[in-house]
Amino acid sequence: MKTIVANWKMNGSLGLLHQALNAWQMKDSPNIVVLCLPSVFLPAAHNLLHQPNFFMGGQDCHTNLQGAFTGDTSAQHLHDAGCRYVLVGHSERRQYHHESNALVKAKAQAALTAGLTPIICIGESLEQKEQGLTLSVLKEQIEHSVPDNKASDFYVAYEPIWAIGTGLVAALEDIQQVHAFLKKELGARIKLLYGGSVTADNYASILDLENVDGILVGGASLKADDFGKMVQYS
Ligand code: PEP
């Protein structure tokens, strides 16, 4: 059983949500499916979900569970709305909102306190990759952005920044090498996802790799037919 995560970012529509959720739930999926939707779509999605292994996730949360933080999203509220998961430290948050490893770690801890499973995103830039720094950058990111209690339930998503939304996918050997490294660093029980230009053409070969417990899918999760195929991976 793999974990197939959709990240709609600030995309999609209520129309697409109805169409996609109906199509994806026509057949039982052998996998865990997590839909990280724009927050305003969560109540509608909650009403549409009926397959037991389909779950909702947030795309970010605050470090505090409540307070005077206008415009932010509380992990507690995501949980109340029916979410079981939340992305933290996505590279777009790190880049556009200047999120540090320490902030990402505090968000992951808030998510755990609220009863959510955080999906902590890490990944190297193209420059770092070209300088041969991938593993050291990832080691630093996991040292400073994953919760101290390794017995907690969380996922780590390896998302090379240069592969997100670019159509460039990491080579299978590189994904394999990085995931073997992360499993060794984090322990076998932490689930590892790969994200970065996963498509209907390449998802199966990525999911077949050892130590790849699932995928995190951006652009292709907005294509109902393509993501529908991924949901059915076996
Ligand atoms: C993402 O948003 O995390 C992502 C991997 O996007 P894409 O699949 O479009 O590269």
Describe it for me?
- This protein has 234 residues and is an alpha/beta fold.
- It has a domain at 123-198 and 205-216: Alpha-Beta Barrel (TIM Barrel), CATH 3.20.20.70.
- 38% of the residues lie in helices and 17% in strands.
- It has 10 helices and 8 strands.
- It has an 8-stranded parallel β-barrel with strand order 1-2-3-4-5-6-7-8, surrounded by 5 helices.
- The protein is globular, with a radius of gyration of 16 Å.
- The relative contact order is 0.16.
- The structure holds phosphoenolpyruvate.
What order do the helices and strands come in, and which of them pair?
Elements: E1 3-7, H1 14-24, E2 32-36, H2 42-48, E3 54-58, H3 75-80, E4 83-88, H4 91-96, H5 101-113, E5 117-122, H6 126-130, H7 134-145, E6 155-158, H8 172-186, E7 191-195, H9 203-207, E8 214-217, H10 224-231
Parallel strand pairs: 1-2, 1-8, 2-3, 3-4, 4-5, 5-6, 6-7, 7-8
Helix pairs in contact: 1-10, 5-7, 7-8
